[in-house]
Structure to design on (69 residues):
């Protein structure tokens, strides 16, 4: 519990518990990231992903948001 709180404080600042990290796995990464940027004004990182079971290539979107967003 304490380790999680410390990591949250490092990632989100002193507003403990108000933010979340999103990982979105999709074939439509560019469209989803454009909508997040347009709607929320947040940055998005698109990482290449490779399914270990399926072997399919997919985008993995990484985005930090406030809990209410």
């Amino acid at each position: 519990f304490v380790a999680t709180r410390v990591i949250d404080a490092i990632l989100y600042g002193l507003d403990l518990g108000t933010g979340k990290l999103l990982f979105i796995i999709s074939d439509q990464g560019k469209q989803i990231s454009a909508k997040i940027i347009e709607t929320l004004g947040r940055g998005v990182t698109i990482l290449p992903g490779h399914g270990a079971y399926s072997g399919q290539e997919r985008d993995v979107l990484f985005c930090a948001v406030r809990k209410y967003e």
